[in-house]
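[job 0412] stage=complex_fold ligand=pyridoxal-5'-phosphate status=START
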Amino acid sequence: MTTSTLSPARPTGRDVPPLLPVVGAGTAVPLATGGTATYANLDNAASAPALTTVAARVAQVLPHYASVHRGAGYLSRVCTALFERAREQVAGFVGARPDDVVVFTRSTTDALDLLARAVPAGGRVLVADVEHHANLLSWERSARTTVVRGGADAEETTARLEAELASGRYAVLAVAGASNVTGEVLPLRRLARAAHAAGARIAVDGAQLLPHRRVDVAGDGIDWIALSGHKLYAPFGSGALVGRRDWLDAAEPYLAGGGATLDVGHDAVRWAAGPDRHEAGSPNVVGAVALAQACATLAALPAGALEAHEAALRDQLVRGLTALEGVRVVRPHPADAVGVVTFTVPGRPVSEVAAYLSAEHGIGVRDGRFCAHRFADSLGLVEGGLRASTGVGTGSADVARLLAALERFLTTGPELEYGLVEGRWAPLTDARPAPGTFLDPIPGRG
Ligand code: PLP
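[job 0412] stage=complex_fold status=DONE, emitting structure tokens
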């Protein structure tokens, strides 16, 4: 049985279909009330489903899987070529300079941590408190770091960073291209200019920006950019740091081990330069290939298509949410923003609302402080917020379902009773199979 979804809360305007096909679109998920609903994934900012082109590329490459780099066999050489080509594709996607280096990492967190450890001794880092923990704690742990308060909007935050940079005491300015809480986009070219004028370099956390916008590392004067495959429509486990090689070549290797060395004698080790230096151990070839394919598919979109798609969905989200009584949208109208919208619902814990959306409507959103606790607190989200985020696989029907489900929550209330179960809000009666048995039913238990 398929449980029908609610009709849209209010007219949704233009019908916006998904921009690109993603795997898992149309997946039916069980509801706690019985029956199923098509999963509405509005949690793309956390992890986005893989593009079908990525899945096809992975399926094509997997049968040819062999050792990489050190193998003489033909398929080893195929794998090595695929891995090295992936580097070039990622470099091309972000518009890297010819002599930039692409280091494959596990994620954006991994990439920023690597870069933070490469800051020359004594170099001071400037960052604002609006950042995701990945672009805050890595620096604070590894380098001398100054954290300035973010402003009331991206413009004010930018102005504060520029003013602080002007002191000339910074080696690095670290900023997110787009916020994972408000979706606000920062003016990277302007910040790069300000950083360079003050003798600093700029490192960009591209985790939220690159799934939505093209970036031009060389043209904008960005020194490094970090990215994650799983936010860019490739699977988990691959990421990259792209940018200038001098500090990376001078830094301690990120991991010590095979592949990162030129020669290991009894008394001394000669470390490699370039990406090898920081990629010890067997690399994630399939992850790199998947990431490169995602880049190629996004790069092939007509100019402006991504922006137009998400602007329409963001507009639908913000209009619909602000029309709901008592709902507060955080920074609803920034000058420039990607499809990430955070809001609160009056009088109810955000995690109860998130549990309701999943249990009764098959809708996935994020709740909490989004790994940006300092920013969330300064936005008045001490108890957390709800975040809806769109991607290329999102259509206006998904947003309409969210709005209709929230309207029902605010008017008639949830159908089920909710309470804290093992520290998380959950329906107290739940017809769904345990998530751990969804794909692997226990024999005899359906
Ligand atoms: N930076 C931003 C802005 C993010 O939103 C995230 C993840 O949510 C990260 C960094 C960390 O990405 P990852 O978990 O892939 O390392």
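The first strand starts at residue 28 and ends at 30.
[job 0412] exit 0
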